[in-house]
Structure formats: C-alpha cells, structure tokens
Backbone:
C-alpha cells in the first residue's frame, strides 16, 4: 500500500483548490454569457416592441386616411339623396336605390374602421376613459327606445325592463353606448322573426348589471371559452347568413374591464342567450355637470346595425 507524505497531501489540496477555482471561473463565465445573452434578448425585445408600436401608430393613422375619402363619398351620397327626394321618375328612383346601397356600405366600412381603430388603441395602450356622472338607467332606456324601429323592422319585440328609476354613476358615454349597441346588434342578428329581446338594468351590491336577453338560436357551450377573444367568431347567423368580424364582443369585454367591470354569458342552443355586463358604481367629482352625447345617434345606430338592419 502506498503511503502519502506531507508533500503529497499539499499537492492533493492544491489540486482540489485548482479544480474548485476552475469550476468557479467556468461558472462565472457561463453566468456572464447568460447575462450578455439576456441583455441582447432584452434589446431585441425592446426593438420589437418599439417596431410594434410604430406599426400600430401607422395603422391608427391609416384608419384616418381611410375615413377621409369614405366621409367624402358618404357626404356626396347624402347630397345626391336630398336631390332625388324632390323629383320623380323611374330613373331617379333607381338612382335612389343605388344611393341607399352606397350609404349602407359606407356605414359597414365605418363600423369596421371604428372597431379596428378601437382595437389599435387598446393594443397600443392609447385607450382611455372619459368619465362623467350620468343616470345609467335613463341612458340605457334612451338607447333602447331609439332601437325599437330597427327591431320592428326585423319583426322582433324589443323590451326595456327595470325596477330602477335612477342610478348616477361615472361612465364613459361612448364606450358604454358601444357595449350596448354591440350586444343588441348580436341579439338581433341571432334572433328570428317574432322573437323577443329584453334589456334590463339592476342595481345590486354597489354594482349595476346591464343584461341583454334574447330568444334567439343560442350558443353552444364549447364556444363559451373563446367567445370574448379577439378575432374569434361563432358560426354564421342562420337568420341572415352573416358572421361578425370577431372584434365586437372583444371590445365589449375590454370596455367593461376599463370600467372595472366584466361581461358574462349564459346560453343554451335553441333557448336564447343572456349577456350581462357588471359595472361597479363609482361617482366622480366634477367641477361642472358636462353632459356628453353621441355626435349623431341616428348615424351611430346606422353604423352599428349596417350589416343587419339597412335603415337608411
């Protein structure tokens, strides 16, 4: 058997130290490499985010460029429409029909552009709330009353039902209006003739619940998981054979969440659907009571319902 002397023990300890030092240096080099890789990845990520921001800004600007000629076409069609109202004749009647087609498709394009514009704002972080105190009950009722002609035109009974008389709360007028119009547009799209749509408002536990209940075709349960996702579509409506863009319900969800609320759905195939928007009741301090109204309610309704109710 070999006997180790003192020098051998020193050499063995030195060897262990050298191995440890080598391991430590290798580990430090690996850590430094990982740090450098992480730094480069972060730089690439920042560059990607900056590029994405520029693209979104470009798209946002493009929406304005699209709206400009569209508004010119729409304005021209309105002027031509006014001219035909004071004259008779087969030629002018046909011209009037073509003008209605132009206006309806202008509304469709404006609806798509508005939705994409809102989507761009949300994705780029530019979407903001403009809150004002408003009676949510009368607000929803006014919108419902303005929609009755559209519902009647489709042979659908539209009802506003609530036990509440007044509930003042802070809301973004345009965004809550878009929520209600989107939900009602879907309800009309998927509800057959002689069906019923009921809009309700309930004040409960410091929250306001806005519900849109229809007697339409209903939604399969397997669609629930993605119904509020961006660009996700359910099947085409058997009522009019059309599917949406997959943006409307996503915007409903986002606008509700911006108010600190949420949206939910209950449905069964052949038994209709109920969409409920839950909004927390908050009141802000305003220096003066500034009432915000839609620029043109009739025009806003024509835009939102252009694909199902061409009321021009």
Residues:
């Amino acid at each position: 058997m070999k006997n180790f002397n003192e020098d051998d023990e020193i050499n063995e300890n030195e060897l262990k130290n050298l191995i440890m030092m080598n391991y430590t240096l290798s580990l430090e080099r690996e850590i430094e490499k990982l740090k450098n890789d992480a730094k480069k990845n972060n730089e690439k990520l920042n560059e990607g985010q900056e590029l994405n921001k520029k693209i979104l800004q470009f798209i946002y600007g493009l929406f304005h460029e699209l709206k400009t000629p569209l508004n010119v076409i729409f304005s021209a069609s309105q002027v031509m429409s006014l001219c035909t109202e004071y004259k008779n004749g087969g030629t002018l009647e046909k011209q009037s029909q073509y003008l209605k087609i132009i206006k309806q498709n202008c509304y469709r394009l404006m609806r798509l552009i508005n939705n994409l514009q809102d989507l761009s704002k949300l994705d780029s972080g530019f979407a903001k709330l403009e809150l004002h105190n408003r009676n949510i009950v009368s607000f929803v009722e006014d919108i419902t009353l303005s929609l009755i002609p559209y519902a009647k035109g489709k042979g659908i009974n539209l009802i506003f039902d609530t036990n509440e008389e007044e509930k003042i709360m802070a809301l973004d007028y345009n965004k809550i209006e878009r929520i209600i119009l989107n939900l009602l547009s879907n309800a009309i799209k998927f509800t057959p003739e002689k069906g019923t749509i009921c809009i309700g408002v309930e004040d409960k536990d410091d929250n306001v619940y806005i519900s849109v209940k229809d007697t339409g075709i209903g939604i399969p349960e397997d669609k629930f998981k993605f119904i509020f996702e961006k660009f996700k579509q359910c099947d085409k409506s058997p009522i009019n054979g059309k599917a949406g863009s997959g943006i409307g319900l996503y915007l409903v969800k986002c606008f509700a969440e911006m108010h600190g609320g949420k949206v939910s759905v209950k449905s069964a195939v052949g038994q209709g659907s109920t969409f409920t928007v839950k909004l927390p009741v908050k009141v802000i301090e305003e220096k003066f009571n500034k009432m915000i109204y839609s620029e043109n309610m009739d025009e806003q309704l024509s835009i939102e319902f252009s694909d199902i109710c061409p009321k021009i």
User: Anything to note?
Assistant: The chain has a mean pLDDT of 79. Residues 131-304 form a domain with the Heat Shock Protein 90 fold (CATH 3.30.565.10).
